[in-house]
Structures are given as C-alpha cells and as structure tokens.
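Batch manifest, entry 17 of 40.
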Amino acid sequence: MNIEIRNGALELETRKSSRLMIIDEHGRLLLFLYKDEHQAPFWATVGGELRPSENYVEAAKRELYEETGLIQDVDEMLRERDDVYAVARSVPARWLEKYFLVKWPANREVFAAKWTDEEKSTIQTWKWWSLDELLENEASLFKPDWIPDLLRSVLQR
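Output type: structure tokens
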C-alpha cells in the first residue's frame, strides 16, 4: 500500500488517468456501468491509468482502443480533475485526471478489444446517453457528478 505519513499528514499515492468523453453523431455520450466493492454501481467515462512511460494523450488513445475497439486520435482536453478515491481492488489514491473529447464515427460498434481482468469484473455494460437522459437521473449516478454538465458544454459549442 502506498500511503505515507509525513510531518503528521497522510500522503496518498498519486495516480494519473486519461478519461474520454466519447460523443456520437447524435450527441450521445458513451458511459460504462461500473460495480465494485467501494461504492454503489455508477456510470463513468471510458478511460484508465497512464502506464509509466505514457503521457495523457498516449494513454487516452490506448484506452480508447482497449475499451471500445476504436483506433483514432483524440481531440482536445476538455477538463481536469484532482480527487481522492479508490477503484476496484485498490486503496484510496489521489487521482489526476484529464478528460478528452472523442467524436465517435457513424456506424461503428463498441467492442471490448483488450479488457483487463479488473475491467471484465467491474464493467457491467455500456450505454449511449442523451443529455436529456443524463439530466433525468440523479447526478450521484455518474462519476464524477458533473458529467452531464460537461456534455452540455460540448454540445453547446
């Protein structure tokens, strides 16, 4: 476990993650339903942790392929997040996340190209969400809870 106490303060391991706001031609957002031992099931974007030699963009492209089967460049970074949480089979850590826009091509199917064992056990399904559908649900169903607002801001451009 990478938790240290320095000068009387708890210090958590810092981990980095690329997240993907994947939007199709109808303005719908692709989200995965996650279920793990840390919290109730929730919907979140595609993405994952950077490998030691990767930067955020490289990790975003790799995660895009591994989790959806799509090979393409990612677009602009939309938002950054700095938060503390635990993911499946881990302890709490400080996560530094960057959210990138991806425009999903028409007539492409999502498929799990290279899911890890952890992903296979925690990702239950995926769904394309319209903004109206996101707004009809409690914000706590989404991690982070500002996902609907970020989709709205992208669609209003």
